[in-house]
Amino acid sequence: MPTNLLLLLLFGVRVLAICPPMCTCSRGHRAVDCSARGLAILPDSLQHNIHFLNLSHNRLQDLDGFLNHFDHLRTLDISYNHLQNLPVGLPRALWDIRASGNYIRQLEKNDTAYHWNLQNLDLSHNLLERVVLINNTLSNLQSLNLSHNKFWTVPTNMPHNVEMVDLSHNFLLQILPGSLDRLPRLSRFYLHANRFTSLSDGVFGRLDGLQLLTLGDNPWACEDEENISHLLTWMQQTPAKILGCPCYTRPTCGEAHLATRRTWHSAAFTEPPLGADARHPVHRAPMHAVTSGYLSKSAQLNMGHSAANTSGPGEQVLIMGGEFLTPTPHSLSTQSSTTIRTRSTKKVLPGRARSTSHQIRSFETTILSLLCTVILHNNLSN
C-alpha cells in the first residue's frame, strides 16, 4: 500500500474519532453538543481543546474532577441533569456556566473561588438555600441567575461588578442592611414573586446604576403605613423603572427623570439574562401578572395568582397573559373601595377610614330595612 494512502487513511480515522459518536460537533470540532442523549457518564474521546460543551438534559449525577483538563473550555451547559453540587474542579477559563434545573442545595466558597474569567452563572431552578461567596471573587461576573430556588434572604458578598441579578420566585422575606451597598454596576434586579411585606429604609439607596427593578407579586403590607412609607417615597424619587409597584394602582412607577409618564406594554417581569442562548431557552414557570393594586393578605391567598388588577381612570391594566385592557366605566365604579392610593395625596388610607365607610353603609342599609317594615305594617293595618 502506498505511503500517502496509508497516511490518508490514518488521518481520516483520526478525524472521525474527534467527535464522540453520541454527540454532534461543529466549529472545527470545538463545539460539542451532547444534549438529550440519556447520558449517565461523560462521553469518551472528547478533545481537550473544545470551547463549547453542551451536556444538558441528561442523567448526569457526578462530574467532580472530570472536566478540569479542558483548559480551553469557555461555555459549559450542564443544566437539567441530576447534579447535587456544582462540579468540583471546573476549568478556570470558563466564561459561561449554565447549571439550572438540577438538585444543587448550596454553593460553597471554593466552588467559585478561582473563576476569575466567569461572566455568566445560571443556577436557577435548583434547591439552593444559601450561597457562600468570597469578596473579590468572580470579579468579571456580569449575570447571576438564582431564580426559582429557596432563598429566605438576599445573598451577601455578591460580585461587585455584577450587572444583572435575578432572585425572583424564591421565599425572600428581607434584605439585610448593607447587602447591596457595594454593587455600583447593578442595573437589572429581579425580586418579584417572593414574600416581601416591607423593606428596610434605604436598602436600595446605594444602587446608583439601577435601571430596572421588579417588585410585583409580593404580599406588601400596605396597611402598615409606618413601615411601607419610606419605600413608596423612594419609588417616587428613583430614576429606575419599577415593575409591580407596591401599593400602587398602576404596574409601572419610578423614573423620576421623565417629564411625562409613559404607558409600558411589557408582558413579562424579566428580560433574558445576559448571555442567554436562544437555542437552549431556560424553561421557566409561567409568569404572573404584575401586582399593580393592593389586596389584603387573606384576599391574595383566596384569589391566588389569577385575579386581574384594577387601575385608575384612563390607565391600563396588566392582566394574565401579558395584555393591557382599558377599564370600562362599570369596572371603574366598583374599584373605589379597593383602591388604596389617591392621585392627589398619594397616601395609604388608614384602616379606620375604611372601617368607618363600611359602618356607614351598614347603617344606611338598616334604616332602609326599618322603613320598609313600617310601611308594610301600615298597609296591612289599613
UniProtKB/TrEMBL annotation:
Domain of life: Eukaryota
Alphabetical list of SUPFAM superfamilies matching this protein: L domain-like (SSF52058)
Ranges for domain LRRNT: 18-44
UniProt keyword terms in alphabetical order: Leucine-rich repeat, Repeat, Signal
Region (Disordered): 329-353
InterPro entries: Leu-rich_rpt, Leu-rich_rpt_4, Leu-rich_rpt_typical-subtyp, LRR-bact_E3_ubiq_ligases, LRR_dom_sf, LRRNT
Signal peptide, first to last residue: 1-17
Keyword Signal included in the entry's annotation: yes
Residue ranges, compositional bias (Low complexity): 331-342
Listed SMART domains: LRR_TYP
PANTHER family tied to this protein: OLIGODENDROCYTE MYELIN GLYCOPROTEIN B, PTHR47114
Name of protein: LRRNT domain-containing protein
Source organism (scientific name): Cirrhinus mrigala (Mrigala)
